[in-house]
Specification:
One of its GO terms (molecular function) is ligase activity. Helix content is 73%, strand content 1%. With 706 residues, the protein is mainly α. The protein has two domains: 443 residues, no CATH class; 76 residues, no CATH class. The radius of gyration is 30 Å and the shape is elongated.
């Protein structure tokens, strides 16, 4: 049957409302699943959520594109918040100038674009207050599911961070970290409270009151001060808004609802706060001697005081490191997303400065600054800082102007709650990094999208594409969405393969590890950690030259502490003594673990001997053995120096001492290997045994040769 263009368009117009309903249903499904989705084959929970977002939102955007294609009159609302997004994107592009890892900048910009796309989808899909409530209840339900999972981990019913032992330390839920969960719950708490007030459904009220009780209960054992700070400020904004706008003239109508909420929260507090009946069983947060109790505010006040009185907290150091980056690249920053890449390099500079003398404790991982404003300023420079401040001003003006324009009391209450959630997120950003957490960022985008949707009046800045521009934009959008989806899938596969490669390294299966890692590198949009682990693999296989190549490629992409130690020892082995010494000196400036510092100083002493600087070597060895008296390689080298000087008695004494240490360590390693051990520890134990056996043979030969 032949259909004319007019009939096709007429049919499409009739189906247009159906298109939007399909889009709304798909949006609800994404809202429910995105914060909950995890895949244990990935290296991080947040990474899985990111890839899921790329793929699902691409599909949802393609559905939207299809609707636009069939409906010539379809308008798109961009809203005033498109201006801040444009400013931030422009700053991000400028930051490419100094970025050591330009691929990381592009990945970060891709995420910014996709969360903006989620925002536009919400704005252009939600048309009524009812739909807005459904979307928010779905988001709260996602938080409810995450809370139930975290609660079961707390009770030891399901496996947590510490197995089945239970307690606060086991809580990670589907977020990968208890603090991430606490932050997410603090954002959705006040919106859930508001929906209870405005909903007419008793079943919804009951469900949300139960959810609030569980959220409140779990926040206590987690004890995240940033999340409590977020919740306190969200509550203050909501309360102040109620007093100012007076959306409910007679609160007595809601007295029973408010009484039930207060009762549920009080019961949650009684059961969750020390010394409550439940956590006395689980040994949670018993008050230490000499610590003041601050009642319900203890989880907020006590850690804040502790942070203030303790000199040189790790987070303060993170902020100073961001300042060092800004001083070095003041205009356009070090590159969006590159704080984590160059963290250790700038930490080394900071620790050697006068201001850094009071710091230097080991920081296991410097991925974030624990302050989004500091981190983004370091990454985007002063231009980025201006963009951030401008964006925040526009954002707050937008939020409160939309609330003010709402005439219905229910809309104002909901709007004030969403404003509280937004402010809570922004406050939390000063002590944490919610913008780097997909679920937390999604909560913010949802709040802003709902406020700017049809539920709060007519959306602003509506545009209608026409003519050649319409087809060009559709074609470019289609190509972009498909390309991102393909890259996301390839990147996901690369991450899975990298994780498998890391496991094989731990098991000691280096050929299998190499195969997995090489496949990962070929699929990855921006290989970072893969280069480092390929270097480790090649070194274990005896290919030192290839290992150096991979480690050098890791510079500017992924720079853990061990990278400089690996390079230093490899350069030393290859006879490149100056480069070896430089790498080891850099390593020592980074504030690494003491055991690794000891190892680095030992290799510096070896280099000193190779350069005929024996006295310098002896000084370094004295530092090594002062730090670790049983560092057998240092003792052996002392014996070698004594033998070189013709002091055979001292040489014998040192070598015999080293032999005793080695025999003791070999005995311990053999005992561990003969018992039950984790597979991930197997390769390390075998490597220790091989190294100790080799050193034992060398010393035995030395002693026999005297």
């Amino acid at each position: 049957m032949n259909l004319s263009k007019e009939k096709v368009l007429e049919t499409a117009e009739k189906l247009a409302p159906g298109f939007r309903q399909v889009r709304f249903g798909l949006l609800l499904f994404f809202t429910l699943t995105m914060p909950l989705v995890i895949y244990l084959g990935n290296t991080e929970y947040g990474y899985t959520k990111t890839i899921y977002t790329f793929v699902y939102i691409s599909f949802l955007a393609l559905v939207w594109l299809a609707e636009i294609i069939f409906n010539d009159d379809k308008e798109i609302s961009l809203t005033g918040l498109s201006i801040p997004i444009g400013l931030l994107a422009f700053s991000g592009l400028l930051s490419l100038i100094n970025a050591p890892s330009k691929g990381v900048v592009l990945q970060s910009l891709g995420l910014l674009v996709y969360f903006y796309l989620i925002y536009l989808l919400i704005v252009n899909t939600i048309e009524t207050k009812r739909e807005a409530n459904y979307l928010l209840i779905t988001l709260i339900t996602s938080g409810f599911g995450a809370t139930i999972y975290g609660l079961l981990q707390y009770l030891g019913v399901v496996r947590g961070a510490r197995g089945f032992s239970g307690g606060a330390g086991s809580i990670i839920s589907v977020m990968g970290n208890q603090n991430y969960l606490a932050g997410f719950l603090s954002y959705i708490f006040i919106p859930a409270f508001a929906i209870i007030l405005i909903s007419r459904s008793k079943s919804i009220k009951t469900y949300l009151v139960l959810s609030l009780g569980l959220f409140f209960f779990l926040l206590f054992p987690i004890g995240a001060r940033g999340a409590w700070l977020s919740l306190v400020f969200a509550s203050l904004v909501f309360g102040a808004g109620l007093l100012y706008y007076k959306p409910i003239d007679n609160l007595r109508k809601l007295w029973l609802t408010l009484l039930v909420i207060v009762l549920v929260l009080f019961l949650a507090y009684i059961f969750a706060s020390a010394p409550g009946p439940l956590n006395s069983v689980l040994s949670y947060s018993a008050q230490e001697d000499g610590e003041a109790s601050w009642g319900i505010f203890t989880p907020v006040v006590r850690p804040l005081i502790k942070q203030l009185v303790e000199k040189g907290g790790a987070r303060v150091e993170d902020w100073y490191i961001g300042l060092e980056m800004l001083k070095n690249h003041p205009l356009v920053g070090i590159g969006l997303g590159n704080y984590k890449v160059k963290f250790l390099e700038y930490r080394g500079r900071f620790l050697t400065s006068e201001r850094g003398q009071g710091f230097g404790e080991f920081i296991p991982r410097g991925a974030q600054a624990h302050n989004e404003y500091v981190q983004f300023t370091a990454e985007l420079g002063l231009i980025g800082l201006i963009a951030i401040i401008t964006s925040l001003v526009i954002l707050m003006m937008n939020v409160f102007s939309r609330i003010r324009s709402s005439k219905q009391w229910a809309s104002r209450i909901l709007g004030l709650a969403l404003a509280g959630g937004v402010v809570g997120y922004l406050i939390h950003s000063a002590v944490s990094f919610p913008a780097h957490l997909p679920a937390s960022s999604f909560a913010l985008v949802t709040f802003l999208g709902v406020i700017n949707s049809g539920a709060f009046g007519k959306p602003e800045y509506r545009v209608k594409l026409s003519g050649i521009t319409r087809y060009l934009v559709i074609a470019l959008a289609f190509a972009f969405l498909i390309s991102v989806t393909v890259f996301a899938y390839r990147d996901w596969r690369a991450n899975v393969l990298m994780g498998e490669g890391k496991k094989q390294i731990q098991y000691g299966n280096y050929y299998v590890a190499k195969e997995r890692l090489q496949k990962s590198r070929s699929l990855d949009f921006q290989p970072r950690q893969t280069y480092y682990f390929l270097g480790v693999t090649e070194r274990e296989l005896g290919n030192e030259r290839r290992a150096i190549d991979y480690f050098e490629k890791s510079l500017g992409q992924f720079e853990p502490y061990n990278l400089y130690l690996q390079l230093g020892t490899l350069y030393q082995s290859q006879g490149q003594l100056d480069k070896a010494e430089e790498s080891l000196r850099v390593f020592l400036s980074l504030g690494a673990e003491e055991s690794l510092k000891t190892k680095a100083k030992y290799f510096l002493s070896v280099i000193a001997i190779q350069k005929n600087q024996v006295e310098k070597a002896e000084k370094l060895l004295a530092e090594v053995l002062s730090s670790d008296p049983k560092f057998e390689r240092g003792i052996i080298l002392q014996g070698d120096i004594a033998n070189f000087r013709g002091n055979e008695a001292k040489a014998r004494e040192k070598w015999q001492k080293a032999l005793d240490v080695i025999n003791d360590k070999l005995s311990r390693v053999n005992n561990r290997l003969s018992g039950e051990i984790k597979l991930e520890d197997l390769a390390e134990l075998r490597s220790q045994k091989e190294r100790l056996t080799r050193h034992k043979k060398q010393i035995t030969n030395k002693l026999e040769g005297l």
